[in-house]
Specification:
Blueprint (H helix, E strand, L loop, with lengths): L1 E4 L5 E4 L8 H7 L8 H18 L5 H10 L8 H10 L6 H13 L3 E4 L4 E4 L9 E6 L5 E4 L2 H13 L8 E6 L2 H4 L2
Parallel strand pairs: 5-7
Antiparallel strand pairs: 1-2, 3-4, 5-6
Helix pairs in contact: 3-4, 3-5, 4-5
């Protein structure tokens, strides 16, 4: 069983069956080392453009560059790491400009913020309303975004039973990915 520490200090036990992916999902969630990540980034940019077009918001050059930088890897990146990569190419971006771009990307469901790491990761389900559930490998730093309705319902029930009205849900689970475990 997995337990989640709810901010009140209580824990919720969830049977492992809620988290058992299909065999094919493991390779998609945790790509092999050396995986060509350019296809993931290209696909994410196309989806981001479509989401922005449908919402009639602008994906500015800086917002696009921040999103491209985040999608360079499946590992999360901190805001100052993003800034350093952008400025390494000769640009002179200010930290606030990067934070504003990140806020826009989060508001439009293109990026998630991982609070436990104070870092950002590209959303694998852009344009869809969903709760954030993440499996974070503490060894290689790869993050898998999952969507489990059972987890969402369990967290909602636990919150409601305590008189708490959640405005959102982000679940971050630390552990070892299949590659680091040697599977």
């Amino acid at each position: 069983m997995l337990c989640y520490n709810i901010y009140s200090g209580d824990t919720i036990a969830l049977p492992m069956r809620f988290f058992m992916p299909r065999a094919s999902a493991v390779s998609a969630d945790f790509p092999q080392r050396g995986h060509d990540h350019s296809a993931c980034g290209s696909h994410a940019l196309l989806e981001a453009e479509a989401v922005c077009r449908s919402r009639q918001v602008k994906l500015t050059d800086l917002r696009r560059k921040v999103l491209e930088t985040i999608w360079e890897d499946h590992a999360p990146m901190g805001a100052y790491d993003i800034l350093a990569k952008l400025n390494a190419e000769g640009e002179r971006n200010a930290p606030m400009a990067v934070y504003r771009a990140l806020d826009f990307l989060i508001e439009n469901g293109l990026v998630h913020r991982l609070s436990s790491l104070n870092a950002y990761i590209g959303c694998r389900h852009p344009g869809r309303s969903h709760s954030g559930q993440f499996l974070i490998c503490s060894q290689c730093n790869i993050v898998a975004e999952i969507t489990s309705e059972a987890v969402s319902k369990t967290v909602a029930r636990a919150a409601t039973s305590r008189g708490f009205k959640p405005s959102g849900e982000i679940v971050e689970v630390m552990g070892l990915c299949p590659h680091c475990r040697g599977n």
